[in-house]
Amino acid sequence: MALTIKKKSLNFILDQGATFEKTIGAENSSSVAVTISSGTVAGAIVKNFSYAPILKLENSSGGISLDSTDGSGGDVGDNITIEPQSFTTSLTGANCTFSLTATQTAELVEGKYYYSLTYTQSGGVIKERLAEGLITVEASAEINNG
Hints:
- The protein is mainly beta.
- It has one helix spanning 102-106; strands at residues 8-9, 12-15, 20-25, 40-46, 85-86, 88-92, 95-100, 111-120, 127-138.
- Strands 1, 2, 4, 5, 8 and 9 form a six-stranded mixed β-sheet that branches.
- A hairpin with a 6-residue loop joins strand 8 (111-120) and strand 9.
């Protein structure tokens, strides 16, 4: 039987290269906290809903290789994150904590991302949207002082 969780629409800002962690409380349609710790929550952050590339370059063998300009020997674009980027989640009572590591956020380019968190009841069949919204990634202004 579904809990009928009231979906929350929340927006967040994260700093590129910093740990990101937020906690959202699950509520029913009457805004009363509901226990969700017996199920699971999964979530991810994506730049766009289609996951389709904006620009696709291919040669006859199905790919294209460009030399890096920084002397590292890698291909240009090696540091581009493949979407979606999954959250680490944990549940306690009515609360869901979701997070990204500093390494994960460092790989995200500046801009707006969509996220969603889906609760699955312990039986694994019934799923409900816990939260969704925008996460704005702000560029890092970190200065290396030695």
